[in-house]
Amino acid sequence: MTQVKAKVTLVGAGPGDPDLITLKGMKAIASADVILYDALVNECLLAEAPAHCTKIYVGKRAERLSTSQDYINQLMVDYASTHGHVVRLKGGDPFVFGRGGEELDFVRTFGIETAVVPGISSSVGLTALQEIPLTYRGIAESFWVITGSTSDGRISEDLFAAVNTNATVVVLMGFAKLKEIVKLYQDAGKGELPIALIQNGSLEKEKVVLGRIDSIIEAVEENKIGVPAIIVLGEVVAKHQQFEQVKKELLSTVAS
Known about the structure:
This protein is α/β, with parallel strands linked by helices. Helix content is 29%, strand content 20%. The protein is built from 8 helices and 10 strands. Strand 8 and strand 9 form a beta hairpin.
C-alpha cells in the first residue's frame, strides 16, 4: 500500500464571489484529497476539486450550532494522515480573524507539512468593491481591522482606542454589537461620522446601507440588514458614490 504524503494547506477563498479567489488557491483545490470548508465559502468552488476528493462542511456561524475548533483541528490532522493533501478552505483570508494561526500551530505539532494561500479579506475586498478607499490623502492615514466582540462576548477593547483616531475602522463579526459601537462613537462626539454596513458583500444578494452614526440604526432596521455584514466607520465612507444622496436625505429630514 502506497503511503500518503500528509500536507495541510490553508486557503483563503475571498469575500464570497468565487471569481475573487486567487489562481494559487484554485490550484490547491484542484490538488486536494480532502477539503474542509467554512460557512462563508462559495460552494461552487468545490466543483474544482478532483472527483476523488472528500468534501466536509465545518462551518461556524454566529448564534448557531457550529463545529468546534478543536474538532476541526483534529480533522485536519486525521485526514492528512490517512488521505494526503487537506485543503482548509476559509472565507476571506485565513489569517484575518480566521484562526488560521491556531490551526497551523496545531498541525505542525504532528510534523505535518503546511502551506498558506492568502485570500482577499472582506475588510479590504468589500470596501474596494464599493469604491470606499480605506486610506485617502488628507483624510485617513491608516485603517484598523477589528473584531466586533471577544471570545467572551464583550465588545473589543481595541474599539475604545480606535474611536479616538482619524483612522478608518472596519469591524468584522460586529453586527450584534452595532448599537454598542454606535453609542461608543456618540459618546466620543462623533455622531456625524459616516458609516456603512455591507451585507453579503460581492454576492448577488448584497445590501449596502450608508449613513452617519446618529442615523445608522434606523437605516439598518429600515433596510433589514443582517448577518453576515461588515461595518465601516470613517470619513472615507463619504467617498462612496451614493453618499451625496444620503446627505440630501438627512438634510431633508432635519428641515422637516
